[in-house]
Amino acid sequence: MTHQVPLLINGEFITSQSTQLIDVTNPANQEVIAQVPCATDAEVNLAIETAKEAFEIWKEKSVGDRARLMLNYQALLKTHQEEIATILSQESGKTFADAMGDVWRGIEVVEHAANVASLSMGETLENVARKIDCYSFTQPLGVCVGITPFNFPAMIPLWMFPMAIACGNTFILKPSEHNPLTPIRLAELFMEAGAPKGVLQVLNGGKEVVQQLLVHPDLPAISFVGSCDVGEYIYRTGSDHMKRVQAFAGAKNHMVIMPDAAQKQVVNNIAGASVGAAGQRCMAISVAVFVGESKKLIPEIKTALSQVRPGAWDDPEAGYGPQITPQAKARVLKFIEQGKEEGANCVLDGSDVVVEGLENGNFVGPTMFTDVTTDMSIYKEEIFGPVLVTIEVDTLEEAIALINENPYGNGTSIFTSSGAAARKYQHEIKVGNVGVNVPVPVPLPMFSFTGWRKSFYGDQHAYGKQAIKFYTETKTITARWFEDDIDTGVNTTITMK
Ligand code: NAD
Question: Which pLDDT value is given to residue 164?
Fold first, then answer.
């Protein structure tokens, strides 16, 4: 019998009573490796009620206790990094090295969460008026919710619950139904690290579970990462239900190549950043914009891409793995066909690539288009596959205008040896995460991950100081202590004297 992924409710890993089960498959060969239940209404309600009870106790724990939980957790994650990466590779298809990176980037957020004491300190000011002092605290919100996508099964859950819980909240995680095994292992280790029961709950399932969480009156904050359509829906519905929402969404990331860029670096970095993780990264480079003479690098980039080959997660020679589902593969192939029909030049076509021994896998080979224009669907839409489209312009100004016209604003990079060009680009570009000679500029957790425009709905972003703001309320206290019992009279004005 296939193993059923449990739910985590009130400290227990339980088998769901649901009859609605979804197969979790290995995308390299379609083998069913587990089944994930869609939590029932009663299970969702039980998770919410027990998380509310746990919050009343957890919020009173000292900041040191909360930080020490994160320190224990960080140590356990490091010890189990390879084991988690193996689970992650099997259910997502990522190469083992890339899966190790997925876990590592999550561990870094846990390390950051252990700094909660200094991160969440308020402000103080003496004598805001005569003998009156003012100071502020941050206090947790309650039961917060995280809804995560398939493409970073370790990193993205770890963007969310450690920061929220370190701030004194309790948390309900709803992982992607495509790869729930990694998140549930993360949850087991969190319990092993000493998390009290009810502080973290994991509800598996699909959109029905999300819907229940989204409209429930007792859940004040929702963090979402996923596609644009769903992100917009989550943001609108959550906001309509008076919740604080942050929704990280889809992307179309451009790399600008200036004629003075270091050539070998450009070739290597474009190849890696466009097809790494099968293009299934929200920060993948999907458009290369060649300024002036830099277009002479196009043949070399094509050659570099043609030498990257997809394969099994444990094949050390494989550059990347499969698309997550046969439907995701079909969607990528549809875009490749559309690109050809719309008149782009497909100089490298990975549509027919087959990996020996894994003939049923959802593999797509590296694909590259030249002569692409901004009205083509392969330029306008997020493909989420190993497909690079290239555009040629004459000047940096044109490149900036083109990218600022594109509705997405998640990530971008410029490759140049000119400080002035890089300075102009970083200042004028309307994208939230910018790399200068760095192809995939995902910020480390002492900063925040700051997607803009159609790639983000909300205000406060993930991790860094912004996560503390997202997961807490600020309380400001204005205090006066009487030294004697002088009669100051009745004051009916707003001034403080
Ligand atoms: P998805 O939107 O299909 O699913 C994300 C989550 O939402 C899952 O947990 C899923 O169960 C749930 N969901 C799906 N449809 C829903 C609906 N109709 N109502 C309520 N909930 C629903 O996304 P995905 O395919 O898992 O992930 C890929 C997408 O995520 C890409 O668009 C990628 O760019 C984006 N992404 C963005 C970032 C970022 O930081 N901006 C990071 C990673 C991934």
Answer: 98
Per residue in 423-434, pLDDT (tens digit) is 999 999 999 999
What is the rounded CA–CA span in Å between residue 59 and residue 447?
25
Query: Cβ neighbours of residue 423 under 8 Å, at least 6 residues apart?
Result: none
The answer to whether residues 362 and 324 touch, using CB atoms and an 8 Å cutoff, is: yes
β-pairing, 32-37 vs 124-129, is unpaired
369 within 8 A of 392, measured Cβ to Cβ:
no
User: How far is ligand 1, taken at its centre, from the CA of residue 82, in Å?
Assistant: 26
Beta carbon of 102 within 6 Å of any ligand 1 atom: no
pLDDT at 497: 64
Which regions of the chain are under pLDDT 70?
Answer: 1, 497
Residue from 225, 286, 410 to probe ligand 1 pocket by mutation (most atoms less than 8 Å from CB)? 225
pLDDT of residue 489: 86
Query: What is the C-alpha separation between 403 and 251, in angstroms, rounded?
Result: 12
| Cα 90 from Cα 466, distance rounded (Å) | 33
Q: Is the shortest distance between the CB of 248 and ligand 1 below 6 Å?
A: yes
CA nearest to 202, candidates 482, 14, 53, 57: 14
Q: Identify the pLDDT of residue 486.
A: 79
CB distance 249 to ligand 1 below 6 Å: yes
Q: Which residues pair with 218 in a beta bridge?
A: none
**Which of 265, 221, 270 is CA-nearest to residue 241?**
221
Answer whether 290 contacts ligand 1 (Cβ < 6 A): no
Tell me whether strands 408-409 and 411-415 are parallel, antiparallel or unpaired: unpaired
Instruction: Answer yes or no: are the C-beta atoms of 71 and 110 closer than 8 Å.
Output: no
Q: What is the pLDDT of residues 124-136, one digit of tens each?
A: 999 999 999 999 9
Element of type H or E holding 223: strand 221-225
**Considering only CA atoms, which residue is closest to atom 1 of ligand 1?**
226
CA dihedral 59, 60, 65, 70 (to 10 degrees): 0
